[in-house]
Amino acid sequence: MVFTTHIFLFYFLPLFLLVYFGLPSAWRNLWITVASYVFYGWWEPWFVCLMMFTTVMDFIWGKVITRPGATPIQRKLAVVACVVTNLSFLGFFKYYMFAAESLNRLLVAVGFERFSVMKVVLPIGISFYTFHSLTYIIDLYRGHATPAKSFTDFSAFVALFPDLVAGPIIRYKTLAAQLAARGHTLSRFASGTLIFMVGFAKKILLANPLGGVADAVFNASNPLPLDAWVGVLAYAFQIYFDFCGYSDMAVGLGRMLGFEFLKNFDAPYRADSITEVWRRWHISLSSVLRDYLYFPLGGNRKGPTRTYVNLAVVMLLGGLWHGAKWNFIVWGAYHGLLLGYERWRGKQSLYESFPGPWRIGLTFVLMLFSWVLFRADSLTAAWHYFGSMFGLMPVADTALLLAAGIYTPYRLLILALGAGLVFQPLQAHDWALRPVDWPRVGVALPLFVLSLMTMYSQAFNPFLYFQF
Predict the structure, then answer these.
(1) Residue range 209-224: average pLDDT?
(2) 144 labelled catalytic
(3) Nearest-CA neighbor of 252 among 26, 3, 1, 2?
(4) Rounded to whole angstroms, how far apart are CA atoms 364 and 229?
(5) Residue 466: its pLDDT value, please?
(6) Which one of 135, 155, 183, 291 is at 20 to 30 Å from 301 when CA atoms are compared?
(7) Quick one: which of 163, 99, 91, 96 has its CA closest to 132?
(8) Residue 416: per-residue pLDDT
(9) Which one of the listed residues 132, 282, 322, 335 is annotated catalytic?
């Protein structure tokens, strides 16, 4: 189930809220768990069994780690066993086929025969809820969090449907007190509704039509240079409005239930260096990679060389986390090199002395190059796309047909709106934090109604981060 469907909006959400607010406080976390399992199992019911199994396992490991009288070696063995088990599940479902196919290509290259590869279905959102559980276990081991008071609290945290399948990545210690007791006020519910409406509009009115442009160009054979630049520009806007819109909806739904999630985006395309981009883009993932991988590797405490190695490792693994493709690994390496270079320059870009708008523009171009790697179907396709961007590929006979499809007044208007919105500083998360008033309602409600009408006319409605 996704947020941008009539099933969620007109059936699941109203029924969930009606029961939720009709229950005593002590039963609400259990209802969150049950309803979230229904939400998650809507795609494939057996996915729920995997999540339920890992949730029970992680809750037990948490009890072992925090058991009175547990020795340091027992605690260490417990956390290692838990991390290995969780990562083994994630590795099998997400990376088995990639590893097997890569090994097959290597075997064929040296003269051996291919072996048959078992088809494995990737459970949606497994990367997100695995990270949720791992942060819980590791924080317990470090003494940064207290164990969940009940299994119901912990299962509600893992299964919480607003952020279950596409984040943001939420740490247990930030929600522990709210899981135990949280306030429900009309103003908070109204604020959550407002930010949900804005996120919904981002997804339906901007991300989906921009995705149509991006798909048309990336699926074309050798587009014209201008078309190739427009295609990656559309994708840059699509992935931002898609994921930021989902995060806004998650924050809004959480606020309706009394939870306060941290902001996941902060105008990332206004960043003037790649280092600054990663402080603004997918903030929850950046902070998790920093606190649970970069710092344990040594961070910048063991000399410059080790710092660059740590940055490279973190970004390579961050790229691999996004998906089992060589494109994502190269995408991570690309960002690792840029971050390492800026670290070498004292966290300054090569163009640090340029005026502000130039620094922002050059950083955005570097991001566009990375989005080609992220979006292309393969490294070969990415290489060809780069060639098209710089006029190094023969233009296909269908170039004029592509231009006729992407340069319509409607799509040009959406591109212009996207450009205007991504480079302005006001964020929906901050806008909705202010007290709800009629002017804000007068903006959000018409946008939501327009989005609902548009939703019924769209056949293209993916959430890009569901695949991660």
Answers:
(1) 90
(2) no
(3) 3
(4) 12
(5) 62
(6) 135
(7) 163
(8) 94
(9) 322
Query: C-alpha distances in angstroms, 9 versus 171, 187, 197, 253, 451?
Result: 27, 21, 11, 12, 12
The helix-helix angle for 438-455 and 186-201 (nearest 10°) equals 40
Assigned token pair, 252: 């809004």
Task: Check whether the bond before 168 is cis (ω within 30° of 0).
Answer: yes
Angle at 204 between CA 202 and CA 209, to 5 degrees: 100
Q: Residue 217 carries which side chain, given as an amino acid letter? A: V
* 159, burial (CB in 10 Å: exposed 0-12, middle 13-18, buried 19+): buried
How far apart are alpha carbons 17 and 196 in whole angstroms?
A: 15
The pLDDT of 109-134, averaged and rounded, is 82
Question: How far is residue 349 CA from its own chain's centroid?
Answer: 26
Q: Please, are residues 376 and 219 in contact by the beta-carbon 8 Å criterion?
A: no
Of 127, 174, 178, 186, nearest in space to 153 by CA: 178
Determine the Cα–Cα distance for residues 322 and 374; give it in Å rounded to an integer: 9
Do the Cβ atoms of 324 and 94 come closer than 8 Å? yes
Please say whether the beta carbons of 25 and 181 come within 8 A. yes
Residue 24 reports pLDDT greater than 80:
yes
pLDDT tens-digit series, residues 275-298: 999 999 988 888 888 888 888 888
How many C-beta neighbours within 10 Å does residue 404 have? 9
Kindly state the average pLDDT of the residues 116-130: 82
* pLDDT tens profile 363-402: 999 999 999 999 999 999 999 999 999 988 887 777 778 8
Q: CA–CA distance from 460 to each of 34, 209, 329, 346, 421 (Å)?
A: 30, 8, 28, 44, 22
